[in-house]
Task: structure prediction
Amino acid sequence: MPSKITAPRGTQDIFPPVTRAWLALETVIHDLARRFGYGEIRTPMFEATELFVRGVGETTDIVEKEMYTFLDKGERSMTLRPEWTAPVMRAALEHNLFSHGPQRLYYVGPIFRYERPQKGRYRQSHQFGVECTGFAGPEADLEVIALAWELVRAHGITDAELNINSIGDDVCRPKYRDALLEHFRPHVHELSADSQRRLDRNPLRLLDSKDERDRPFIETAPSFESVLCDACREHFDALKAYLGECNIPFVVNPQIVRGLDYYTRTVFEITSSALGAQSTVCGGGRYDGLVKSLGGPDVPAVGFALGIERFLMMIEAVHGERALPRSGVQAIALGSQARAALVPVAVELRRLLDAPVFMDYEDRKLLAHLKIADRNHARFALVLGSDELAGGHIVVRDLETREDRRVPLGRAADVAAALGEAR
RNA sequence: GUGGUUGUAGCUCAGUUGGUUAGAGCGUCGGUCUGUGGAUCCGAAGGUCGCCGGUUCGAGACCGGUCAGCCACCCCA
Result:
């Protein structure tokens, strides 16, 4: 037997009722973005590989080992979108959006990264994110953080924590880098192998090492705040003040670094203990240099990305799986004659009712049909058998109160009205 | 990419030191109940034991490989 074809590693099929939870979250997201004045953008699921190499950074893990890259039939190197920010900026640039002033854009959709799957990590995952361009001041930082936090707050997620940090700009980041090198260099051989590698590549990332051997040196490392230039410090202080005034609780965490090259100044993360080792549900920050590095004007920008799968895990950890309330009607026909009469009624009811109308087309006993109605979580059953057919009525049964009533069969509108009353 | 761990019915899992014909619960379907549901009881369907190879008289059990799930590292949402 040929081996069964299965979904590729790290991808998943999503069925009802889980798809319902996805739709509910997406609905909240679209509404939230609208209230903050953001418009939705959709971009291709694949892009020229070059976009990510230049946008995300050549030495980042994403570019070095996590991209799904392939050659198309024209021998062009293409890559499945591993993150949204670079494509969104590319699209905005390509269509000259930046010449029309500040932009507020958001997206919801899949990203692809070639990684070994684990809890909260998949090869295809989905992100919601926003990009706010054209504002250099801390107000924009506050705006996107407030938007992300509102999503968390609205779902009553109590164990979420907002961490913020500033990683400086072109002026002070090199200084900090040097300070770190100076601090760690004398102890190179006492550091973990990973950290020794990081020291050359990206000393900032050494700060979030989990290795016990690195801990003592990380604890004594100089903090970025001590090196921030005046402009960056002012920006960071203003943001903290705004967050306080808006009652958004946060902690300053000097170890937040972000893995992508384009971040400047503000970086932030929202974490939760519900997610295992992958505790970050939302990560973002300011990326003032990205648009320029993609060949565009010098446009400041700030945004975040939020993992949909991880967020759903958080919601479930807090609320558990909710029992579905009864809703809609089960149309039950006993016999072929009744079925022929009821099918058009069901179709008409679907036009009239704002609730599901279920119907099973097999020949079954009433009992079996009622069991199906239960399984569908229907609120009402419409029973049409030979007696009702002869009498020109239909029996409406309330499956919660077990009450039966007769309704004239003549027009579906009458049935719909009866259901409306009964509710 | 590295490490640990697990693959037996749709789901959750038993299966003795290797031994004839593969087990349970839940779920599904039918009956119990010629037309009134979530329960009870009875019955049925459903498996080349992830896949390939090896050891053996004999493999679901042992060995190797491979694929996949889960978890962690690296890193990230």
About this structure: Chain A has two domains: 18-172+228-319, 329-422. The mean pLDDT of chain A is 89. The CA atoms of residues 3 and 9 of chain A lie 15 Å apart. The two ends of chain A are 54 Å apart (CA to CA).
